[in-house]
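Title: Comparing notes on inverse folding

I've been comparing how different people in this forum approach sequence design from structure. To keep things fair, I'm posting one structure and asking everyone to reply with a full sequence. Here's the target:
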């Protein structure tokens, strides 16, 4: 072997040492595209950590029908265009059996046409109702929708006698869909939107929009529809401007990270979220209690961090996938898709899931809890 060949062999050996283990042909390949970095990182980071932890656990227990799970994952850095590229790679090069992800609505919608064309089961972790309406044959989702969030929030506002609301939404896919659904739900529920402002996902200050809202005559409450870091910036600006109106957020901030980022300014803010955030306060006979407390304990022990509903969405997607593969008797994509659609009575961190040909999410409004931030923690609102 000449010097050139020796150098090539050494380089190849060094490269192989830095790469993850290659999935075996017999492995069940679970693909994932998540926003582990970028503005949506506090959603994507716990999603990836959850998938990694539970893939490891499932494999340690013998895998699925004797086959190990291989997690093939990519970070789209909160960029929908990158998500599209990684989606193609998962389908064409990695040849995965199923895909989990799209942390964000933008990433999900960028990948949806790919999985529809290729016929690959896809479980999204994004919130917008557009992910599953209209129903797409190969696309499912685990989080509650933006429409459900608007319905839950406005029901709570009406109980408090609030009917004139200012909306501040993000220009991301989730924010745009949330704005559209909020407008429709407000009209249906007798809520008047007296202001309608927007902000960018990477904006560092929203005082201009909030100053406009503050000056609107008769405004009684403010609803922020966004995800990631933006809503925390809004919340801090809200306090800095001395706005005393009730503040509502969407389920796009249902994480301890939001409280850390917003600090004391988050006190009193309300939002709808899964029961995972208040797991210990659930009654003993609640069917979700063992699921959410078990996940919360395992996650905190491994990562020394509190759980978020976003990691919970990833856990639900993985366990729905595993259950569908078991029911399908393997990884035949059409059979797995059919098994997902036939899911009934699945108890996850987001609620009890009952899917059908007309419903590829399977959650109703009872799966949402209204929470308020008090003394730096989540509290159930009765």
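Reply #1:
Here's my take.
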């Amino acid at each position: 072997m000449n010097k050139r060949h020796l150098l090539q062999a050494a380089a190849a050996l060094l490269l192989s040492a830095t790469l993850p283990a290659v999935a075996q042909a017999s492995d069940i390949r679970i693909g994932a595209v998540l926003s582990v970095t970028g503005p949506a990182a506090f959603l994507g980071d716990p999603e990836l950590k959850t998938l990694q932890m539970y893939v490891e656990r499932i494999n340690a227990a013998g895998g699925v029908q004797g086959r190990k799970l291989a997690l093939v994952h990519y970070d789209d850095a909160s960029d929908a265009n990158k998500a599209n590229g990684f989606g193609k790679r998962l389908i064409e090069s990695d040849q995965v059996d199923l895909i989990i992800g799209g942390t964000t609505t933008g990433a999900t919608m960028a990948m949806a046409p790919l999985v529809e064309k290729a016929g690959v089961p896809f479980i999204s972790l994004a919130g917008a109702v557009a992910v599953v309406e209209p129903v797409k044959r190969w696309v499912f989702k685990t989080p509650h929708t933006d429409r459900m969030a608007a319905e839950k929030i406005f029901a709570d506002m009406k109980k408090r006698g609030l009917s004139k609301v200012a909306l501040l939404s993000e220009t991301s896919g989730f924010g745009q869909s949330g704005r559209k659904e909020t407008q429709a739900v407000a009209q249906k529920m007798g809520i008047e939107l007296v202001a309608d402002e927007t902000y960018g996902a990477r904006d560092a200050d929203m005082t201009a929009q909030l100053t406009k809202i503050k000056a609107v005559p008769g405004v009684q409450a403010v609803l922020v529809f966004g995800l990631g870091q933006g809503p925390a910036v809004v919340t801090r600006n809200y306090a800095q401007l001395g706005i005393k109106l009730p503040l509502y957020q969407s389920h796009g901030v249902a994480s301890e990270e939001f409280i850390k980022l917003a600090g004391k300014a988050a006190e009193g803010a309300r939002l709808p979220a899964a029961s995972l955030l208040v797991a210990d306060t659930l009654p003993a006979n609640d069917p979700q209690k063992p699921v959410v407390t078990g996940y919360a304990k395992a996650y905190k022990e491994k990562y020394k961090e509190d759980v978020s509903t976003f990691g919970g969405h990833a856990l639900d997607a993985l366990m729905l996938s595993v259950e569908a593969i078991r029911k399908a008797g393997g990884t035949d994509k059409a059979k797995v898709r059919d098994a997902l659609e036939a899911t009934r009575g699945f108890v996850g961190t987001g609620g009890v899931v009952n899917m059908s040909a007309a419903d590829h999410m399977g959650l109703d409004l009872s799966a949402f809890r209204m929470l308020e931030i008090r003394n730096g923690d989540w509290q159930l609102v009765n």
